[in-house]
Design a protein that fits this description.
The protein is an all-alpha fold. The protein is built from 5 helices and no strands. It has one domain: 434 Repressor (Amino-terminal Domain) (Orthogonal Bundle). Helices cover 60% and strands 0% of the residues. Helix 1 packs across helix 2 and helix 2 crosses helix 3. The longest helix has 11 residues.
Length: 72
């Protein structure tokens, strides 16, 4: 299963400017964020919760940012 993280990517750029800056705030490497956004590895529940806080995303919008399935 693949997820469409385009909305999340946009929010990262809007709030942090780069994936690298967001990765540092999240406490992971830039490569880890890249792998997650490219559906190579999954976000953990803790990373999702921390991302919501860091990006100012309402918990009610979690599906739109993290669980929007990619259309094949």
């Amino acid at each position: 299963m693949s997820f469409d993280y385009s909305k999340l990517r946009g929010r990262i750029v809007e709030k942090y400017g780069t994936q690298g800056a967001f990765a540092r705030a999240l406490g992971v490497s830039e490569r880890t964020v890249s792998l997650k956004l490219n559906n190579r590895i999954f976000f953990s529940q803790d990373e999702i919760n921390r991302s919501l806080f860091l990006l100012g995303i309402n918990v009610n919008d979690v599906t739109a940012y993290f669980f929007n399935e990619k259309v094949q």
